[in-house]
Amino acid sequence: MRQIIVVPFLTLALAGLVKGQETTGPEADEAKAEVLKVEDEFSKAIMAGNWGVLPQVFADGMSWIARGDLLGKAQVVADYRSGNLHFRQLTHDSVEVHIFENTAVVTGHSTSILDYKGKLYNAPRLFTSVYVKMEGRWQLVAHHVTELPKQ
């Protein structure tokens, strides 16, 4: 129940970061490319076990909602490092990035084979990642995953 209550409040809090309509034009295109590069580096790092990348990608105070858990930065990093969270396969498609000044909302579909605390997950899923440009770099402030029924 706690996760259900947190999502609307998180959405409202993040909406406060967005000052207006979606940003368009060359600056937005450059920002989208930067965010996609961070997403790609993050995906490659977790597949290769390069955990040193995570603290740079994750913002302090980050919220990570997946598999019924609400985790923070320290717990997600610890789960990756300990092997509690291990991707065997990960692919994304239908990825879209929307820029709102210094905030980026990334949505998409992914398929993965994931071992989380000894349980195997391999359902397709939808994801939303929210990045904010702080201290000159894009940092992940929120990530949410919704598993889809297997087809």
Report what the structure shows:
By secondary structure, the protein is α+β, with helices and mostly antiparallel strands. It has a single domain (2-147), classed as Nuclear Transport Factor 2, Chain: A, CATH 3.10.450. The chain is 35% helix and 44% strand. The protein is built from four helices and seven strands; from the N terminus they run αααββαβββββ. It has helices spanning 2-17, 26-48, 54-57, 73-82, and strands at 58-66, 69-71, 85-100, 103-116, 119-121, 125-134, 137-147. Strands 1, 2, 3, 4, 5, 6 and 7 form a seven-stranded mixed beta sheet that branches. A hairpin with a 2-residue loop joins strand 6 (125-134) and strand 7. The mean pLDDT is 87.
Q: Rough shape?
A: globular
Strand percentage, roughly? 35-45%
In the predicted model, the low-confidence regions spanning at least 5 consecutive residues are none
Level-1 CATH class name: Alpha Beta
Q: Tell me the major beta sheet.
A: 7 strands, mixed
How many distinct domains?
1
Q: How many strands in all?
A: 7
Radius of gyration: 15 Å
- Percent helix, as a range, is 25-40%
Q: Label the CATH architecture.
A: Roll
Given the structure, what is the number of helices? 4
Output mean pLDDT. Answer: 87
Head-to-tail CA distance between termini? 28 Å
Overall structural class, as computed from helix and strand content, comes to: alpha+beta
CATH topology: Nuclear Transport Factor 2, Chain: A
What is the N-to-C succession of helices and strands? HHHEEHEEEEE
